From TrEMBL:
<dbReference type="Pfam" id="PF00106">
    <property type="entry name" value="adh_short"/>
</dbReference>
<dbReference type="InterPro" id="IPR002347">
    <property type="entry name" value="SDR_fam"/>
</dbReference>
<dbReference type="InterPro" id="IPR057326">
    <property type="entry name" value="KR_dom"/>
</dbReference>
<feature type="domain" description="Ketoreductase">
    <location>
        <begin position="10"/>
        <end position="190"/>
    </location>
</feature>
<dbReference type="InterPro" id="IPR020904">
    <property type="entry name" value="Sc_DH/Rdtase_CS"/>
</dbReference>
<dbReference type="GO" id="GO:0016616">
    <property type="term" value="F:oxidoreductase activity, acting on the CH-OH group of donors, NAD or NADP as acceptor"/>
</dbReference>
<protein>
    <submittedName>
        <fullName>2-deoxy-D-gluconate 3-dehydrogenase</fullName>
    </submittedName>
</protein>
<dbReference type="InterPro" id="IPR036291">
    <property type="entry name" value="NAD(P)-bd_dom_sf"/>
</dbReference>
<keyword id="KW-0560">Oxidoreductase</keyword>
<comment type="similarity">
    <text>Belongs to the short-chain dehydrogenases/reductases (SDR) family.</text>
</comment>
Length: 255
């Protein structure tokens, strides 16, 4: 069925594809016709994801990638291109979290946060854009930021700083690359139920916090599908530099 969110014929890369949003993005892109390069450090999980996608009639390939290493990123792009051709849709999703008060963050933890969440996003986006430009094609890059890039919450100073930087980086890259046919936008998710957050959200304290938010609950993974596809597909062809909150109103409520 033809829809506004059709990505048939596109070659997509999803970073951080071994869990959470990355797995979800890879599946929904493949289900809508894209050939998907799934990238992460945990290749065993990627291979299982590729097998699942192929079993459902999709097409995918797994590549190892450490987003803090420009060499690893270039090699992953080389392997993806060898399999499917120029990558023109990137879900720039790899990231880490670290909940602790500012006085307890040491220098190595700070550097690890910034290296993954900011430098990694920049390196992947830059590599993708260079290759699109060299191939004479446009495309779309969707960076995963956070509502904590728009607001702050207690005990999240390094994470919030990294995601706020991703929002500004997204806008800067969009400004530079729009004329080259490359759209750069950012998703700003709130609190979603994933394998990493399921145990945390089960606690009474988390439930109390979530029920005090405007939507009074965490998001289900399917609820980020439409916003992601809007930014990733041609349905969002006039969107550049958007930082889109998908958060059940958390960014406008009490945090």
């Amino acid at each position: 069925m033809t829809t506004e969110f059709d990505v048939s014929g596109k070659v997509a890369m999803v970073t951080g594809a071994s869990s959470g949003f990355g797995v979800h993005f890879a599946k929904i892109l493949a289900a809508r016709g894209a050939r998907v390069v799934v990238a992460a450090r945990r290749v065993d999980r990627l291979e299982a994801l590729v097998a699942e996608i192929k079993a459902l009639g999709g097409d995918a390939v797994a590549v190892a990638m450490d987003v803090t290493s420009s060499e690893s990123i270039a090699t992953a792009f080389d392997q993806g291109e060898a399999a499917f051709g120029t990558i023109t849709l990137v879900a720039n999703n790899a990231g880490v979290a670290d909940v602790r008060s500012a006085l307890k963050i040491d220098e190595s933890s700070w550097d690890a946060m910034i290296d993954t969440n900011l430098k990694g996003v920049w390196l992947v986006a830059q590599q993708a854009a260079k290759r699109m430009i060299e191939a004479g094609v446009g495309g779309a890059i969707v960076n995963t930021a956070s509502i904590l890039g728009l607001r702050v919450s207690f005990g999240q100073s390094s994470y919030s700083a990294s995601k706020a930087a991703v929002v500004q980086l997204t806008k800067s890259l969009a400004l530079e690359w729009a004329g080259k046919g490359i759209r750069v936008n950012a998703l700003c998710p709130g609190y979603f139920l994933t394998e990493m957050t399921e145990a945390v959200f089960a606690s009474p304290e988390s439930q109390s916090y979530l029920t005090s938010s405007p939507a009074r609950r965490a998001g289900a993974m399917d609820e980020i599908t439409g916003p992601f596809l809007l930014l990733a597909s041609d349905a969002g062809s006039y969107l550049h530099g958007v930082a889109l909150p998908v958060d059940g109103g958390q960014s406008i409520g009490n945090m």
